[in-house]
Amino acid sequence: MLVHGLGCHQQTWDPVIPLLTDSSEIIAMDLPGFGQAPDLDPGVPRNLETAMLWLGSVFTALGVERPDVVGPSLGGLIALHLGQAGLARSVTALAPAGFWTPAERRYTYAVLHATHYGVRLLPEPAFEALVGTAPARAVLTGTLYDRSQACPPQPVAAALRTLQHTPAFKATLRAGRTPGLFTGDIPDVPVTIAWGTRDRILPPRQAARARAMIPQARLVPLPGCGHVPMLDAPELIAHTILKATQPARQA
Question: What is the pTM of this model?
Fold first, then answer.
């Protein structure tokens, strides 16, 4: 089960999915208010408890019992909570959100807000022209990817359009201000925490805090990867996922 991060959509996983399908059945989904998924009703609180209930209902509707769950950033935090709730067979969290200090959270939010507003201000002709050039892609997405110049224009454009138009972006950020987004351990579920060494949104030093919270977790560095590593190094991400989920499938 592949879950995306804040401001992204299920197509974020497109570079990785072909590298996984020979050994796994893959389900990639849009969270409420992202991609093609409708947003939550206004009266429904946007918090991790709601996310757990929503995903639990999705698992039931799909007839999926305790899948291996993989997610970056917000998706990684959700994956950890699914593991803690006993709803995941294994968890692979790529730079999961929530292991920041107050100062780091303010920095992260400033970067995310600037990226969001900057992309929204681009007129359509300028957007198309800029995404088509490698230097402009580096400027637009340098906080998300480490190798943004080398990323193909189409997936970069799709990711930026999702960031432009997602109705859930601001509300999800507000919910993330809650202190203690993850506490406790996940003692009975295999956990892999992988972190891009070039992550400019959630610095890799936060990985040590996640490992301290979940002592049995396997900590994996992702050399040369940014915050959204699926475009930076799809083969490395696929290898990390397969290595993390194999013990769970054999158990």
Answer: 0.89
